[in-house]
Amino acid sequence: xxxxxxxxxxxxxVERWASEARLLRWLTFLWLVLGLVVxxxxxxxxxxxxxxxxxxxxxxxxxxxxxxxxxxSVLVNLPIRYILGIADWMMLLCIGLIFLTxxxxxxxxxxxxxxxxxxxxxxILQPSELIKxxxxxxxxxxxxxxxxxxxxxxxxxxxxxxxLLVSILLQPNLSTAALCGMLLWLIALAxxxxxxxxxxxxxxxxxxxxxxxxxxxxxRERVMSFLNPWADPTQNGYQLIQSLLAVGSGxxxxxxxxxxxxxxxxxxxxxxxxxxxxxxxxxxxxGSLLLLAxxxxxxxxxxxxxxxxxxxxxxxxxxxxxVLLIGQSLLNIAVATGALPTTGLPFPxxxxxxxxxxxxxxxxxxxxxIARESxxxxxxxxxxx
Length: 385
Hints:
Blueprint: H1 3-10, H2 19-51, H3 56-76, H4 80-100, E1 107-110, E2 113-117, H5 127-144, H6 151-169, H7 174-191, H8 195-215, H9 217-227, H10 238-249, H11 275-308, H12 312-336, H13 354-384
Antiparallel strand pairs: 1-2
């Protein structure tokens, strides 16, 4: 037994934090701080114009960061079995809140979509964002013990997942419904469900997406503008064209922090869904490459946590969180660069929005908690030897 293996025995505080957990924690904080800096730059001008306070959006975001960090601290230090024990109830609660957004007087409609909820003095929440970490937890529970579930339990949970996706589609919010559907499918794939079941589900999901696009004119227009934005440069293609101009204007080194031109009322919603375009303009190709390196490092650490986890459900939770945080980030980047049709998916830790910030911090905490528990299990085995 070497000195390194004796360290957890000599210093018990070390045993609770694996190297992956420590690195993930610092990368999360780095990602968070970088996001706040970018949000400050992206939102200052429009906040000053609309509210007379350039820090308006940053100040509100900081409030949600504090709320999210409280939840982050709780989850990081709470055994994962307790968190899994309430995942089903939290997911059902969020589904109920999603349905409340569809009711007149409760749901707040923005740009034709009722995705936000305002209850009395409480600030606006987006339940379809808050549900994401709990969806990861519950889908890992269901698919992680799929073979041991009764047929009735399987169909019950599949039905609940379908209700969730349908409720999000009714808002309407095709992008979030698609993300949740892909999240469920990939966790089921990682759990080893039969390919015929996965194939049938994939076909059904694709058919639902096609049906939604065929029934909603604005979704069809988004697809058409994605294929050729210059066919209608002042209307449907305007958003993507301005985003591409921002990304292209960044060049190799970028225009410099705070010097984006597209954020000066050219690029719409540049501090939420298209915040990457502002980042790319100000930090250029080099900055974008470093951001991708950050996402890549986070993904690699997350996969390492998944491979080291001893419990199958823990593995699935880690995989789901990586798909959620990194996958959503890459989808957001793909939209801003014209690789995918325009969607309403926020960039985790970057885009303005309290629900997204809370969900991102809770998701990161779950991954760190899985890493900690895997390390604690290794220490227990070491002591038994």
